[in-house]
Amino acid sequence: MIRVNEHYLKLKASYLFSDVARRVADFRKRHPEKEIISLGIGDVARALPPVCIEAFHKAVDEMGNDATFRGYGPEQGYSFLREAIARHDFQARNADISADEIFISDGSKCDTGNIQELFADDIVIAVPDPVYPVYVDTNVMAGRTGKFTRGRYRGLMYLDCTEKNGFVPTLPSRRADLIYLCFPNNPTGATATRQQLTAWVDYARREKSLILFDAAYAAYVRDPAVPLSIFEIEGANEVAVEFRSFSKTAGFTGTRCACTVVPKTCTAYDRKGGKHALHGLWHRRHATKFNGVSYPVQRAAEACYNGDGPRQIRELADYYMENAARIRNKMDAMGYTCTGGLNAPYVWVNTRTDSWKFFDFLLRKAGVVCTPGAGFGRCGEGYIRLTSFNRKNHVEKALRRIAQALG
Ligand code: MLT
Question: What is the model's pTM?
Answer without folding.
Answer: 0.97
